Each structure stands twice: as C-alpha cells, then as structure tokens.
Amino acid sequence: xxxxxxxxxxxxxxxTAILLIDADMTVxxxxxxxxxxxxxxxxxxxxxxxxxxFHEKDGNQAQANLLSVMHNNNPFTKRETVLxxxxxxxxxxxxxxxxxxxxxxxxALVMELQPLDRxxxxxxxxxxxxxxxxxxxxxxxxxxxxxxxxxGLRGAAQLLARELPDESLADYTDIIIAEADRLSNLVNRMLxxxxxxxxxxxxxxxxxxxxxxxVEVETGHSITITRDYDPSIPDLEGDxxxxxxxxxxxxxxxxxxxxxxxIASPTITLKTRTLRQFxxxxxxxxxxxxxxxxxxxxxxxxxxxxxxxxxxxxxxxxGTGLGLSISQSIITYHHGLIECNSEAGNTxxxxxxxLDITPMEQQA
Length: 364
Hints:
By secondary structure, the protein is α+β, with helices and mostly antiparallel strands. It is built from eleven helices and 13 strands.
C-alpha cells in the first residue's frame, strides 16, 4: 500500500532515497530522491519487480537479502553497496531495509538508500591532493639536498680536469661532469619549474589540438586519435604551454602503452564536457571543464593505480616516473585535479579544470 498524500509530501522532501516494496517484491512507492538516484520515473516503476531497478554488482544478492528481511522480520543494513542500474551506471550506497506491516496486515519493506559516490570521491580527491602536496614537499627537500653536493662535485671535476698531466685522463672527468649534469637535470625536473605561470584566456581545444598534432607526428599516424569535443565550453584562465605539457605527458603514456601492447587498432580519444556544481577537493565550483583522455590499451596494473601520480613511479622500464606527477602538479596549480580509472581495453584519465576561477584566485 502506498503512502497517503501527506506522507508522500514529507517523503518527497527527504534527501534520502526511499522505496516501499510489497511482499511480492514489487515497488509500491518511490520518493523523488530515489527517482533521481536510480534515474527512473516513479510512474513507470510502480508495480515493477525491484530487480528491474538495480542489482548488486558483485552478485545478484539484493533480492535474496530482501526476502530474508521479509521472512525473518529482521532489519538489514549493508554499507558501501555497489548497485548497477539498467543503463550500465554503477552507484555506491549505504542500504538499510526494515520490515513493516501494512494496514491490511500484509508484510512490506522500507528500503533506504544513502548515496556515497560524492562523499567517496571527495574523500579520494582530498587524499590525492594531500598525497601530492606531501610528496612534492618531500621531493623538494630531497632534491635540494642532492643538488648542493652535485654542484660541488661538478666544480671539483672541472678543476681536476685542468690539472691532469695526461689529456687522455680527461675522459674520466668528462664522465663525472656529464653524470652530474644528468642528475642535476633530473633533480630540476623533480623540482618543477619555478617560473611564474603565464596566465591567459585560452580555449581548451587549442591545447588538445596542439597535443594531437604533436602525437600524430611522433607516431607517424600509426595511432588513431579521435575527438569528441563540446564546442560550447567557454575559455578558461590558464598557462597554455603548461597545460599542453600536462596533457602531452598523459597522451604520450597512452601512446607508449599502445605501442608496447601491439594493439590491432590502437586508439586514443580526447573528449571534453562541462560539469555544473562539481566538487574538487572540498570546494564546489559552479562550472568545471572535464577533459577525458582514454585509450584501448592493456590498462594499468591495479598495484600501480594508487601511486601513478607520485614521483619516480613508472610502469615502463625506460620511464622516469615524473610525467604524471608533473601533469598533476600543473593541473593542481590551475585549482584542478587528475583522476584515473583503468581496466583492460579502457584506461581513462579525467582532468578537471574549474572555469569559475578568477585571475586573482589563479595567482594566489
């Protein structure tokens, strides 16, 4: 039996998703929050089996759990449950089910779904930003400690070269100087550039088109680069060259992964969209530009996913592990964030860049 009009008004104003499920496992009521969460229309799902609305990602246990509550008359709660919707989307919720007895004496269930995706994403982003800041502080301190003795080592090698009695011995001092320079360059890359950002109004698609041309030249068009742009995205305040570097580092990683995996039809996709009222870290932005860089390569090993943005972490034997760290630093400077999701055949890097940051805030 569905709630009366007064009860419906109250339930529709709740932020928690509420469903009423009859003894035959059909939906007799769904409030507004549940319709939004499950992306359904209330008029269409009333009387439909509950498993039409969703099923658990790790096995079809949802209906079994509901039947258990119905028969045993004991409430049931499950935290961080992943539900798959008919359209393929997955949502993470806290699920609580309570048995009730209706006026006619029949049994029914009240299901409460509390969405967690936003909270989990905010927590994950805070962790990413904190990890990025901590690792940068550690690397900067370590890099400075390395750089000071390197300068002395190089200077001593130059002085020694002048005093050598045999010019053939200069090969050894040349090696010392060359290796000191190589380490110094590596340290400089770890530290990042200290130059001020050249902030200007730019179109994000100019950045992506520049990267596309560079990669096509490097690969000889052996990798297909597809574009899915939203032309309505407004200009943003940013450093064009740094943003090109940030995107190029990610695209080159995808290019390398595709080459190493010998994919039959290697493809990299560049996609842009706008997001409204989107939270990055703890700050909610009115408008955000989302750039998605995806490839159909073998994917990133799970053991690397949590650390790929840290300096010196690389999935390639020949890599330095600085590219993604530098990209994250550049996007972080633009008050944004980079996230990565990966599985075999589909690796996606999502760059979130706020469009509502003023030039004064950019320079802060």
